[in-house]
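Worked example (supplementary).
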Amino acid sequence: MKQLFPIKHVMGYLFSLVLSVVALAVIFFDLSFSAAMVILLVCAILQASLQLFLFMHVSEAADTKKTLYLNIAYAVFVGLVTIFGTLFTMIWGYQ
Amino acid sequence: MNLDKFLVKGEPMIYAAMVSIVVASLAILIGLTYFKKWGYMWREWLTTVDHKKIGVMYIIAALLMLFRGGVDALLMRAQLAMPENGLLDAQHYNEIFTTHGVIMILFMAMPFIIGLMNIVIPLQIGARDVAFPRLNAVSFWLFMAGAMLFNISFVVGGSPDAGWTAYFPLASLEYSPTVGNNYYSIALQIAGIGTLLTGVNFIVTILKMRAPGMKLMRMPMFTWSVLITCVIILFAFPVLTVALALMMFDRMFGGQFFTMANGGMDMLWANLFWVWGHPEVYIVILPAFGIYSEIISTFSKKNLYGYKSMVVSMVAISLLSFLVWAHHFYTMGHGAMVNGFFSITTMAIAIPTGVKIFNWLFTLRKGRISFTTPMLYSLAFIPIFTIGGVTGVMLAMASADYQYHNTMFLVAHFHYVLIPGTVFAVIAGFHYWFPKMFGFRLNEKLGKLAFWFIAICFNITFFPLFFLGLNGMTRRMYTYSEGSGFGPLNMLATIGSVGLAIGFVILVYNVYWSFRYAPRDTTGDPWDARTLEWSTHSPVPEYNFAITPNVKGMDAFWAAKKENQPLYEGKIEPIHMPNNSGQPFILGVIFFFLGFFLVFSMWVPAIVTGVGVVIMLAWRSFERDHGRHISVEEIIETERKLGGDTV
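After joint prediction of all chains, the assembly is encoded as:
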């Protein structure tokens, strides 16, 4: 029975719930902007790696490693383009 | 309950639509009961997980939506035919151009392409189905739920009326108080989930399920284009998901993301919309490029010129497509730096696209060209699309765009890109792969007649719009004065649109005619084509290939035919196939009602249906379904019936 119970996944699930609650807590406490942002960023990075490594098994299969990391690189590229591109068009580059 | 909230009243055309919807639905229900087809419908179609049947359903849905969007277009052209025409009022016109845009892009072009993908990709790579057949059915039924939800808005509650781009602040609760834009956010969201799942499904299928020997650089060009398209889907659609969710918060829960007050930013919607919207353009155009590559190579009897440069230019387009979105709103007011940057990236896209045009031309060069219907569409595509592309470069210049922005010039440009690009491609693909789906070709004579109507009348409809735009006619204006001088060219465009409609009627008649009278194809390879899908029977047996093909080079089937390389080695073994399931259909129905209740802010039923969705997910999670095996005897029997020679 012990081997059958997916303890890692249940722990990961609970941990991701905790991370969500911590992120939510930012609006309930009177934090400075930068402190709130730091908490959100740390939570976001932890949450993303939790999903990737625990639930999506990024590091498990050796034969698909290259494809997976290439895909993640593409995702990071699109994500950064979206965020910084938006800042560029909407704020920095605005007349 | 008060029905006034739901039904649109006071418009004779809408009453007529209500009557026709009721009559058509009754006819379908009575027909199914009378001919005792309910069991057949349920077993063979509603519960199917077979990629070919799902593809056929996608294409039927796309053709229906083409009809709906086409009627919208004809109404708009009728309204604009004469100055100060009173056929439609401003509100009605707004609703019609909005639904025309959304339906043509998201519920016609996308499903048509996804339908062809579904039918062709597993066959082209020598697979038995997609990687996740059940998920594929879920994709389809979610798309269908979204499409139906969007379509009923017409008679239930009112259509969205803020343009297919739904720009804020116009689309906000303050300026669009009807439920129309709720439909927009919810229906697109549901259909969008389906599209995302399709993206995941086909990436895995193409990467993991290719026949032995089919390396990435041996894949047919259509498969390549679909792989790259799916990567774009995977990365572009989440932005739409987020933007639509924020829109929903704004409209239903008092959010302030895109409002003008309380720190909201109305243009952020336009920004996020186009971060998705521009890659979306390439999502509908890249598979079209793939289709043309297959057709041009087949009917020139040559392999595709510059295979590697085709792949490289598609990868380049996929990267660049994420870097150009701000060219949709140059006039928003950002500085020269931003506009300059996006001008350059936009013009850069013309380079890989130009490479592809030259590759097709060089494929044609010295080829033995046969002028079949699909080939005619492909040949017409090259010059017409180039006009669209060149006017696109004109629009890409930010300073000049201040003149063209939101004029009919722009409308002409994107129809010149999307119709020869996507619509011609899906029609060409439809003619090309039709014998694979149904076992007989569409009639060539009727096909060519429809082609000439469509190709010529397309130009009569949209070429005048370039000049109207340059003369100052803006898009989305529901009428104009006689003194503006826009009358004659608009009349010409309207006449063209009628011809275009006739072309599509001939196309549909051709399908009907061919079903009844066309001679059946027994070879499985009526076009003397090159890729694996033509090496199996038509119509394709459910397991696709009795023996998995063994690929030794590019255009494997061509090599097998010309150099007698054996494609099928080994003996028949039992084939493992997935079971049919009613769950995807039920999930789609639940999603439809969930969406409907959300649109009308009916929270209790919305929560109940939402719980229904969770129950469906749980049901699937705890289900044990290992599929079934088709026995060797059954395969041999099927192969014998289909007259196969692979045994």
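Two points are worth noting when inspecting this output. Chain B has two domains: 1-36, 37-641. Chain B touches chain A at residues 207, 231, 235-236, 239, 265, 267-268, 271-272, 275, 319, 322-323, 325-326, 333-335, 337-338, 341-342 (CB under 8 Å).
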